[in-house]
Amino acid sequence: MSSAHDYPQENSRPVASLALERLVRSPTALIECLPLGVHTCDHKGILIQFNSRAAQLWGHKPALGDASTRFCGAYRMYEPDGTRLDFSRGPVATAISSAAPVRDREVIVERPDGTRLNVLANVEPLFDEAGNLVGALSCIQDISELTIAQRQQRSLVDELNHRVKNTLATVQSLASQTLGSTAGVAARAFELRLLALSRTHDLLTRTQWESADLLDIARVICTPDHKHVRIDGPSTSLPPRIALSLAMVLHELLTNAVQHGALSVSEGSVDLYWQVFDGRLHLDWREQGGPAVTELSRRGFGTRLFERTVVNELRGAASLDFNPSGVHCTMDIALPQ
Fold first, then answer.
1. Among 61, 130, 242, 332, which is least packed, fewest CB within 10 Å?
2. 157 contacts 205 by C-beta, under 8 angstroms
3. Is the pTM higher than 0.70?
């Protein structure tokens, strides 16, 4: 009586084990199991072998060993922007001519019926035991659906950016008409805050709202109109939520420095420095050379924004010291992994 864990035997070895062994010993059977298009060619680019997935992507089965079909079985090939690409400059030809691997090169292959597919090619040059180049092994993956999805995403983000810009412009116009000339200082402050927000939106737009670099944020917020702000820090990628929050905090610090602090006099200056270690952003804002500083008896909008943003929204630590020699601000914020 056999147990539930017995396997069918062939010459006292599990059938599954024998099947796997045959599969490994047969390169043709092995590449047929792959979901990628795979083909090999000799050092001249003449096709030696391809699997059914490659034929499916090409739209036909090219003849093996045909000197008129070199490097690829597709009917035509194009660059991602639609520019015609000769097979002699394609991924396989590049790997053979350079004797070096080609990684993640995107091209468009055209079938005989005119349909086109976006594919990602990875090519490995092949060498014999003496180190002589004998051919290449190419793997191609259909990324057409991913390409379409990315294109649609870019279109949606572009539309969102357009609408956000229009909304900001509308808000600015409404504020100007509502406040009127009697509230010039307040209207100007509101306008500058919108401008800081808009500039940061522009930076995020460049990366399809994936991230913005702190170095770029510091430059667009602090230095366009102020030459006495010195910036020193490494390129640091920030997700949108942190990027927007820090941009507004830096804007408020700058505004305070211009109105009351170091930048209110010609000899004053500001040093903005940051570093990243152990997954945390440590930022330091230090003013010097300005008028003697006294702590404000009333906490203004900038102070409240600073505390609310860094401590509550970003879950960080912050200090704002009104030293007589100049305002000194530090922030410590955890960055996402």
1. 130
2. yes
3. no
For 166-200, write each residue's pLDDT tens digit: 777 777 677 666 666 655 666 677 778 888 888 89
Place of tokens 């045909």: 66
For the chain, how are helix, strand and coil distributed in percent, rounded to 5? 40, 30, 30
**Residue whose tokens read 């045959």:** 22
Q: Token digits for 207?
A: 């990366």
Backbone φ and ψ for 219, nearest 5 degrees, come out as: -70, -45
